[in-house]
Amino acid sequence: MRQITAQMVEQMDQNDELASFKKEFYTKDDSIYLDGNSLGLLSKRAEQSLLDVLNDWKEHGIDGWMGGKYPWFTLSEKLAEKLSLLVGAKEKEVIVTGSTTVNLHQMVATFFEPQEGRTKILADELTFPSDIYGLQSQLKLKGLNPDTDLIQVGSKNGLTLDEQDIIDKMTEDVALILLPSVLYRSGQLLDIERLTREAHKRNIPIGFDLCHSIGAIPHELSNWGVDFAFWCNYKYVNAGPGGVGGLYVNTKHFTKTPGLSGWFGSKKETQFDMDHHFDAENSAGGYQIGTPHMLSTAPLIGSLSIFEEAKIDRIRTKSLKLTSLLMDLLNQEIENEFTIVNPLDDTRRGGHVALMHNDAARICKALKQNGIVPDFRAPNIIRLAPVALYNSFQDVFEAVKILSKIMKNREYEKFENKREVIA
Ligand SMILES: *Cc1c(COP(=O)(O)O)cnc(C)c1O
């Protein structure tokens, strides 16, 4: 392969249609942030919208629900219209609400309807722990046994899944399937369309956790017929730590009674009748539970306006170029150190690059000391996420240069190979 030079990388930045968004984010001159897959950076627009909502509280008190700049009573629905563009759904199929784990509970409580001989939930052994804890407790709530009723599809290499293995487990005793869109460690993007088609051939409802794809990858949830999905908005969507998440329910299920009902799922017109008969909104909004967390919703206003301009297809195109460049440079500059464990194929790769190394924990510490912010996933994975909205091609070039120096000088050896409490 042709040697990649600094000039070539400079040219990539000059040709970058999204380059202007970088200055809208609080990046630092003396460090390169490659951890947007864990917590996206603050943008000036998100900061402003948070201040606007605070100001409405200051100025209007209770009347902020119906007045002010962004009336709170309908803000979750208004933002869902913009968020629906990121998941490829109809406006009413999406709502801004809850968090990943809470939304998982709501969706599983709603869609898991075990019957005689059909009591199992199908998931995978590589998924995020919270998703598994949620499924275990939902099984217990229905009087079932997680040891026998939760099936976790295995991985041949401990890093990626084979769709055929998942499909082979879609047996008659499965009542619900829950899978991630992108695996949080290896960054593998599953074939959502194929998995949905195969699940539906067997009449099994299927949902996806989009935490690691939302904001990085376009989706077509409606066209693919996915039954439900949920996600957080604090990773690639940059809505702030603990920012309010989202969920999607396919239109054909709007008549399904929420498994966990609450008054914010009511029809807006009748919510304040205070009647004890629950009349759910005929949309994804019907699956809301309680009063929305306005101060943790507010940054989404600014953040989603950036996505509206940048467009998710362009974000995906740039993201793939960034991760390709990162892998090419790693191969060029650093020999025989790391194993790249994310899929190399563009159609199977999420938004980050995953490197395996026995000293991963302390290499991450050395990177941080050198102004590069990666993240570490036990036991031996370094994740590097160059984010299309605020990382440049130059950032990737610099980061690999520093990593190469750390490896050559074995600078990581002065740290203990142990993770921090938060990694
Ligand atoms: C980030 C992440 C979570 C976190 O869930 P919270 O409820 O927001 O804490 C859950 N699942 C996956 C797959 C994630 O990537």
TrEMBL record:
Pathway stated in the Swiss-Prot or TrEMBL entry: Cofactor biosynthesis; NAD(+) biosynthesis; quinolinate from L-kynurenine: step 2/3; Amino-acid degradation; L-kynurenine degradation; L-alanine and anthranilate from L-kynurenine: step 1/1
Lineage: Bacteria, Bacillati, Bacillota, Bacilli, Bacillales
GO terms (BP aspect): anthranilate metabolic process; L-kynurenine catabolic process; L-tryptophan catabolic process to kynurenine; NAD+ biosynthetic process; quinolinate biosynthetic process
Classification via Pfam families: KYNU_C
Enzyme Commission numbers on file: 3.7.1.3
Keyword Hydrolase: yes
UniProt binding sites for pyridoxal 5'-phosphate: 100-101, 128-131, 209, 212, 234, 263, 291
Gene Ontology molecular-function annotations: kynureninase activity; pyridoxal phosphate binding
Keyword Ribosomal protein: no
Enzyme class name: hydrolase
Keywords for this protein: Hydrolase, Pyridine nucleotide biosynthesis, Pyridoxal phosphate
Domain of life, per lineage: Bacteria
Residues with N6-(pyridoxal phosphate)lysine modification: 235
Name recorded for this polypeptide: Kynureninase
Function recorded in the entry: Catalyzes the cleavage of L-kynurenine (L-Kyn) and L-3-hydroxykynurenine (L-3OHKyn) into anthranilic acid (AA) and 3-hydroxyanthranilic acid (3-OHAA), respectively.
